[in-house]
Records
---
Amino acid sequence: MFDKKKLLWSFIVSFLLGFMLLVFGPAEIFFANVSEFAFLYGEFAGYMAMIFVGILIVSTVVLTLLPERIHSMVLSVLFVLSVAGYLQVMFLNKNLDLLGVNPDGYHVPLTQGILNLLIWLAVLVGVIILSLRKREIWEKVVLYLSILLIGMQATAFVSLLVTAPDEAYERAKVDDRLWGKDQYTVSAGKNIIVFVLDYFSSLYLQQMLTVYPDGADCLHDFTYYSNADCTYYGTFPSLAHMLTGGEVDTTVPNSEWCRNIWKDDLTTDFYQKLHENHYQVNVYTTDFDVLTVGNGCGILRDKVSNITDEPREVEVDTGLLLKTLTKMSCYRIVPDVLKTQFYTNVSEYSLIVQDMGQGIAHTNSDFYTKLREDGLQEDDSANYFIFQHLIGTHEFNTDVNGNYQEKTSVEETARGCMTIMEAYLNELKRLGVYDDATIIITADHGGDWKEDMQIIYFIKQPGEVHEKSPVTNAPISHCDLLPTVAQMAGMDYTKYGKSIYDFTQDEQRERTLWVRTKDPDYPEDVYYRYTYTGDILALITQVDAGPTVIEQMYEPYY
């Protein structure tokens, strides 16, 4: 027969940990990031609840059957996991990396990791000593604190459910979105193709070439710009800036800034002229919110061609969804030293929801698989300006053959990206459109340390042929992308700025790199602006000296 007291304690402690990990944690993650997820609350909540109830029943029964002393020890450990996990989420995750930000996962400074672990150990030792020496006090602490924490989280949970937007529960029947139907179609005439390999820095290229000296040989017809600045560090606002040329305005909300740059007269004129030159504009990224920041893809309609409002048909991988949300929940709760085990990359959750025949391939392996299966097709109805954003080296999970592998090195992933580029170029050659194409292979931003802030930048003009890729240190930046595209399209580009071809070898040019970060002296996120003249060494010198200007954002992006 069950001991009623043991049964009660076992139930409450099991409920606390299970509810925190499987119910409240996933809900809090989901509702705080609704716009970032393609799945709905109802597509995982019921399953999570069933798993929670099943584990709760089994855990309660097993704990109750344990001998008294062992029961106290195990219960103390579970209680500590709950309390310390709550403290971790509420107070100790202040410098926690956003999931998917770092390509090689979460890294904690040694001192921070040790201090964090000591807090966990102190709580554990304290509770165990209390259970052995002060039984009555231990019982009250476990009972009342557990009930308190359950009550607090249950209240917050209900609040999340009640205040959540409609998009958390129901997928919009009709919504403007980027469409991937023609992602593997190019023009039979003229093509301007921009590949944005996320996070691919010039340093990553150098590291790759030390291991694979022939790794970029497929780009022998391309000129390599070794002194290229991304202007903005981060996919936001870099992608929006690349496609509009609009400078960030820190005095207004991000959504207003984004709406303004897409409606800007010069932006409107650029795309109007591009269309007049018979160019169809296709933009392929699953991160379309960084282009529109809450405005929806409708603001791109008169500029971008692959916009659709057809009903969205999706397939949800429920198993992957449950696994991923559980990992995310654990990532928040566990001590710093264990977070690397639960770090979730973009590739892991980008595959949860798949558009049925209409989605955009964004991960390296997904893009490459479809390219190998079907190749490229050509369209003779228009010229094409293609802006293709891939995950690149933002995650180290691509092998040298371009296939998915859970953990690889930066060198392997970078080499795999080149394998994919080679396959794409070979398809252009097969169709007979390679020679007349303008092709740019670059990145939205570089890495997160000084030596790694510049980006790769390869470009091939129509008719450009070399045995080996020429290299120039001309000081270019993404401020020059739209003028360069305009020039290659045969437009008067000077009204949009300077093309990369307006800058020469060894030329000195003042450039500014904007880095979005946090500063203890400002309540909101800030931009550190580093203005420098020269190459990467000059940039490093300026970073060491400190930002030229600090601008507080009106609001953070994340």
---
Amino acid sequence: MVDFKKIISEKIGEITNVDSKNIYEFIETPPNKEMGDYAFPCFKLAKDLKKAPPVIANELKDKLTFENNEIVKIEIAGGYLNFYVNAQMLISEVLTEVEKLKENYGSSKVGKGKNIVIDYSSPNIAKPFHIGHLRTTVIGNSIYKLYKFLGYNCIGVNHLGDWGTQFGKLIEGYKRWGEEYNIDENPIDELTKIYIRINALCKEDETVLNDCRNNFKKLEDGDEYCTNLWKKFRDLSIKEFQKVYDMLDIHFDSLNGEAFYADKMDEIVHILESTGKLVESEGARIIDLSDKNMAPCIIGKTNGSTTYATRDLAAIMYRAREYNYDKNIYVTSYEQILHFKQVFEVAKLLGLDEKYINGLVHVPFGMIQSKNGKLSTRDGNVIKLEDLLNEATSRVETIIDAKNPELENKKEIAKKIGIGAVIFNDLYNSRIKDELFDWDTMLNFNGETGPYVQYIYVRTKSVLEKAGYIPKIENVNFEKLQDEKSLEIIKLIYNFGDIIMQAAEKYEPYILARYLISLAQAFSSFYNENKIIGEEQQTQDARLYLTYATGIILKRGANLLGIQMPEKM
């Protein structure tokens, strides 16, 4: 497909002897269509050319020619050059490409041969999978999908919290009261009750706490009884977690959690010892990072046990060897920014290739807040993610019952809309911002929401079904789509690939979410102002094809956010 930006940048590069790749990066999309399709800020060349921006703009305008008529008009606006693309060529290129690639439109092979590890979700074994895990799960999943769409080999890792002294406590509690609790039937709730009970007893009796510590030591040493219990707790927890992942349609390539690295941490400690940087401090073993204006990174606790940092360093080493990663991405809350800064700094001491150090990326995000502050149940207990998703589905069912009670497959459609609404709400703003959780806003079918995008998609399907339309690009007269509303959609579809690239490179799914709202609104405006079915044949065929193309992009874009699209609503 024609890359208008590339054509413009190469022409300017030829005239100015400035690298066209740099010029390409400078080319902007104007804030309104009256200013053209692309704009080049000439002040970017002022230093190299030693001329004022308006002078550069005038000289470039006089010299720029486009042999294939890709650009039909150039205007000067102060120190800017505004470019207007050939509408006929744009329409032809976009729709022909949609016909050729269909749901793969906007994809790329830029990542071919490159491996990306994405570490996200990571709930703790034997503890509730709660709403606090929502953001890491859906942001990580979308980043995974975006990079996969760009041709990268993605490895999604669910780094489960499945190791530590809490398991010594659970084992001790189960020894004492296991028969009182049906962990096979309701594992998370029952294990939580055991943990709370044994934890309270530990506070009362130091000997019980010592028994718990001994249990974990036995677990570390491979004791059969303790190991079997740990495996049971882990397997039952994963089975429960999978219910939520199935609801979200999320799958992982690896469930290697903290326990996986239990036998890999000695190597890390030995390497750090050999550098002379691992020192004793108040009984603990640390890497001093004061020269980096950071608190020390604790590698070993006073009792000799390792830390999260040690396990993360072991994971970096393992992933470098196992996956030969180009990026190793961690999707966690902004509360862990310091932790990962420390870990990434210490990782430089492991002797890894620079590629692996440069590929370490922390993707932080904000918290979830309700309109009234902290999101929690009335009694202050944690909100389970499964319950939240079921609540979203139930609320949408109620809406459907009121608006379209005869709708077939109501439950399945309500699930797609309700869960899609939760995901979209999370991804609609920059991830670093706190997410505002409000049912009324989230489930609004007319606002900037997931249900609105789904509704517009369903409208495209409804129009095509009513017309009995079979897409045929050869029947499309491109001249019939040069009106303002049609062109707005075409230009948005043209930019889809760039949007995907931006969202991936910045680890910001919200860029795609905002784009989908713009495309949905553009189609709504087109639909309201243009008759589609019943127009003369050429116009009808052209508008139906545009409707078809819009539907493809809306569905693909939503899928890349992790949202499923209903076909009816």
